[in-house]
Amino acid sequence: MIKEFKNFIAKGNVMDMAVGIIIGAAFTAIVTSLVSDLINPIIGVVTGGIDFSNLFVNLGEGSFASLAAAREAGAPVFAYGAFITAVINFVIIAFVVFLLVKLVNRVKEAAETPAEPAPAAPAGPSELDVLLEIRDALKK
User: Fold this and answer.
1) pLDDT at 102
2) Of 10, 70, 116, 124, which has the highest C-beta tally within 10 A?
3) For residue 122, which phi and psi values (nearest 5 degrees)?
4) Domains in the chain and their CATH numbers?
């Protein structure tokens, strides 16, 4: 059973999947930073300073200045801003993955398509033609 497990782990598909998961986790961190550090501030400027990640409705008692303060106090909140941010993250990730798949497919097509053969060099006289010219020249 251990030998079967080793064979299973050693197969390329499992290793490819593991590499994909690791790269995906790193990619998620990059996209999260892209959205929170670059895109959300631009959206905030366009929408008049609205920070989506801090939008919430307090479902309990009291009022809180921020979502973090409400969560720290243990108040039940409807954090729709976090959901909007997650949707923005998803759309951006889906678009980037679409572009990557499109690029990979284009590279695969280029690799699978045989290259156009180089145009043949103009054919010169054959050996027989040269010999016939020499014979004719000698006859003169």
Assistant:
1) 92
2) 70
3) -60, 135
4) 2-139 (1.10.1200.120)
